[in-house]
Q: What sequence folds into this?
């Protein structure tokens, strides 16, 4: 599963040098992190709507869009998906309550 995310992240990174007239990803990256974050927020709302009132297929599509836009935002900030996955890996085996409590005390 993370291979798909890593491959998509590599494609998004490669789009930095694509023609902006033919690459939506390049247009987003050129617009900067604020625009990428706004688009991610819009996609998150669409996921919530799909989750509460649409089909499973609609939810899957919106979730895919959300992941794509998250990867674009990460790329716009030069944050590698591998670093995010490493954070998740470090959290494995720790309850969510413990993990949140640990963040509050740091």
A:
């Amino acid at each position: 599963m993370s291979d798909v995310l890593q491959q998509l992240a590599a494609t998004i990174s490669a789009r930095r040098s694509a023609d902006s007239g033919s690459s939506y990803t390049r247009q987003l990256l050129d617009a900067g992190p604020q625009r990428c974050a706004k688009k991610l927020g819009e996609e998150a709302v669409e996921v919530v709507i799909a989750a509460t009132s649409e089909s499973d297929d609609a939810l899957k599509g919106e979730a895919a869009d959300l992941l794509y836009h998250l990867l674009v935002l990460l790329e716009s900030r030069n944050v590698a998906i591998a670093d995010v996955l490493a954070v998740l890996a470090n959290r494995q085996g720790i309850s969510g309550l413990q993990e949140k409590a640990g963040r509050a005390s740091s």
